[in-house]
Amino acid sequence: MTHGPLVVLHDHLDGGVRPSTVLDLCHAVGVATPADDAAALGAWMTITPGMELVDAFSRFDLVNAGLQTADALRRVALEGVEDLAADGVVHAEFRFAPLLHTAAGMTPAEVIAAVSAGLDEAHRTTGLDARIIAVMMRDQPLDISMQVVDAAIAAGGRVVGVDVAGIEPGFPAELHRPAVERAAEAGLGVTIHAGEMDGPHQIASALTCEPSRIGHGWRIIDDCTVEDDRIVALGDTAAALRASDAHLEVCLTSNDCLGQPVAEHPLRMLADAGFRVGLNPDDRTITTTTSRREFELARTLLGMTDIELAAMSERAAVAAFLPDTDRAALVERVRSGWDIAVPRLVHLAEREVWESCRTSGVYLPTEFGRDGFIHLSGLHQVLTPANRFYAGRRDLVALVVDAHLISNALVWEPGTGIQEYFPHLYGALGADAVLAEIPFPSETDGSFLLPPELVKVVRR
Ligand SMILES: [Zn+2]
After folding, report:
1. Is residue 238 part of a domain?
2. In the beta sheet, which residues pair with residue 266?
3. Ligand 1: centre distance to CA 135 (Å)
């Protein structure tokens, strides 16, 4: 598979340890392993669909038994970056719960320092400058979460965000809201596991913490009305999630292990309905996957195109917990690395203006006089302006534009790293560059969803 640079936002440090390293680390501290060669241990560590959660978590328990020293953490961090870099990853954020590594006396600060040292070393040898997300465990009391956040804030450096993870049922994220708020006030990014093991009400709870990213989140599909493999209406939580612009860190193989077959995963439906989605490995060793493999699965089992895969990479770059200048550079690197010439773009036009212009063969929207350009979108960018600027309007038409016919005059908006890139056309749009006109009606809930005809024409 050819693909461009990959961005990993959701990767658990303890879920990606090489089996050979697990053997070394466990045996070094006298912990028995279920197998004594790496291949057999790797097979045992792999969780499979239908496995009880308690058995799945026992794999992490074994790994973490060997991850109680600074040397062990440093090694695992270094090797994790090496493996991701070899897979084509250019930006990675590792997450771990500092308090799971304090059994032998390390403090949370020492745990974070040890992982940071490994990432520093990996940066020198691989060039991949990985960051850290500190994890609070949902079933722990709030004061423990506060300790995690305080350690994360004090550490600074590579620590760029916090997460709330662990068993969902019975432990809504809002129990940890004061800790999350403290992290956000200190400038750390916020992501929260929600809608992975439990339903949309967990996502609703997570949204009260105002995360900019959600781990998994795919069960929001249970708050959407689906007809013919397409989302046709959003429930209250789904509408709130989409409006929040939170990025969903989807992990196909991991979700498969929890009972959601990849071929039936709602990833593509969610993308088409305007949710911001990206792909991640979650636990590379424990679920036997890689970042690249997740993209291959999306292509082979969900039929996603190169442009859709590139868009997911770009969206992940946009959602990275990095300072704006670094984020803009990452977005630029990802976009240029995928080298996808977008063949078809979309412009939302007021039907009356389009129809009056069309007869003259040249389209110039009224906004051209003010903005000096015509705003074009990739398929998954259409819904953001539609919902932001045209809510309630029923007189729009989506023009499908052949970018090849106008490419000389096409300029991609300079990246701020905050928004996705939108291509601008500095000049009139010839009516002959328009391949199709698709009505763009409001849905009954007042928010826009992509008309299926538009999806069909643009993807063709
Ligand atoms: Zn996870």
Report:
1. yes
2. none
3. 10
How many structural domains does the chain have? 2
In a domain, 119, yes or no: yes
357 lies in the same domain as 308: no
Using DSSP, state whether 382 is helix, strand or coil: coil
22 & 133 share domain: yes
Ligand 1 centroid, distance to 256 Cα (angstroms):
13
Q: Is this structure's pTM higher than 0.90?
A: yes
Q: Which domain holds residue 215?
A: 6-337
pLDDT band at 111 (very low <50, low <70, confident <90, very high): very high
Band (pLDDT 50/70/90 cuts) for residue 445 is low
Does residue 213 register a pLDDT over 90?
yes
Strands 429-430 vs 131-137: parallel, antiparallel or unpaired: unpaired
Q: How far is the CA of 285 from the centre of ligand 1 (A)?
A: 13
Q: 69 pLDDT exceeds 90?
A: yes
Give the β-pairing of 374-375 and 429-430. unpaired
**Taking the C-alpha atoms of 122, 128, 132 and 137 in order, what is their torsion angle to the nearest 10 degrees?**
-90
Q: Which of 82, 93, 121, 196 is catalytic?
A: 196
Beta-strand relationship, 247-250 and 230-234: unpaired
- Whole-angstrom distance, CA of residue 264 vs CA of residue 10: 21
Q: How far does residue 282's CA lie from ligand 1's centre (Å)?
A: 5
Same-domain status, 348 and 332: no
Q: Sign of dihedral through CA atoms 19, 14, 103, 169?
A: negative
Is residue 1 a part of any domain in this protein? no
Q: How far apart are CA 254 and CA 283, in angstroms?
A: 7
Q: Is 196 a catalytic residue?
A: yes
Domain assignment present for 185? yes
Between the CA of 437 and the centroid of ligand 1 the distance, in Å, is: 41
